[in-house]
Amino acid sequence: MKKGWQTKTLGEICEIERGGSPRPIQNFITTDPNGINWIKIGDATASEKYIYKTEEKIRPEGVKRSRMVYKGDFILSNSMSFGRPYIMKTTGCIHDGWLVLHQPKVDPDYLYYVLSSNLVFNQFDQLAAGSTVRNLNIGLAKSVEIPYPPLPEQQRIVGILDEAFEGIATAKANAEKNLHNARALFESYFDSAVTGKLTQEWRRKHGNTENASAGLAVRLAERRKQWTGTGKYREPDSPIVLKPIDIPKGWVLASPEQITTHIVDCPHSTPKWAESGVLCLRTTNFKPGFLDLESVRFVSQQTYKERIMRLEPKPGDVLYSREGGILGVACMIPEQLKTCLGQRMMLFRTDPALVLPEYFTAVLNSTLVLSEVIRLTSGAASPHLNICDIRTFPIPLPPITEQRQIVSKLDAITTETQRLESIYQHKLAALDELKKSLLHQAFNGKL
User: Fold this and answer.
1) pTM of the prediction?
2) Which domain holds residue 234?
3) CA–CA distance, 169 with 207 (Å, rounded to integer)
4) Which of 97, 125, 149 is the last residue of a domain?
5) Which of 10, 136, 286, 374 makes a 20 to 30 Å CA pair with 108?
6) Whether residue 129 has pLDDT greater than 70
7) Rounded Cα distance, 12 and 145, in Å
């Protein structure tokens, strides 16, 4: 401890109280603009220091069953975003998921920084250890110790941290912008792929040696011959084209039903989750062009068997999100991944004689198809796509040789995009570590 510094508990420097909830809360929520602000976790974000406004209000009679907070009060989340501090810039009521720290005997910005540090978070974490759901009560919060330098030293530390964190915030915003731009540029190549721009120079050099329309007609005739008489054949629907779509010579507009061998919806049931077993996909794993398997869930072998009764997914199958918040995103199952479908998704198995799954994925992620998604779901309270509509999406289909060229170019672009994303992600992580390091130095008297 630096000379002249003390150690004090939060209970010594603040009055700490817990929020309260009038119940049932739905009976107290009001749209009256004169209602009392009702402060929820959703009104705060991880990157913000202050809470300025709330999405909901409660009737004045709910105040006596809750806890009022005022401008300048500190509130701490004691459950979901565990231990995260915010400073009030408005008045309102807090529920029992918050603690409020009134009238701190310390520089407010100094207290904010110390509450944001690992020094305090680690104490919160240890004090709440052992409970099924981590949360803080008043007694635990009061016992947390913080370094307590003289007021001029507190203000000096705040000045240094304010300046440093402002620079970090600028650098972080630039890195996030670059990361967003890299992803946006990558996704723009889907449009170049399906309009023929990506292979325009290749076609100029090689000419149109193949015709996708003829190839499609031959393949459909083969299928018709194979299945006619079995009672199992149904002529696939043609694409529904509402406005002209320009495609290069030698290409054809086809429907997903014409160029796939299987179109399978997910089981209409919530998976029975397990601690381990077989990976079961969620739409949160879907990213344009690939599966993000950083956060996954599992089902038992028995549940897996039940969920693949329609069709067992295999590498190269194309997945598509067709309802919910993540809508209209396509990706592929990678090699050596055993998995089954969760909810709100469907699966395509492409006909290898007509379309490469990588190319089909690019088309589904293109603006051409996304505009169809918007048209079909606009205004819906719970947006979802019907499979019968998806079956007739217009798909620009090049000859298979040109598809290989497109996929090769997209692979190269993907590699470069992933390289850039890795650089920006590492930079963001380094900036977060720098903030932690500065806070550690500050509260150990080393700034």
Assistant:
1) 0.76
2) 211-398
3) 52
4) 149
5) 136
6) no
7) 9
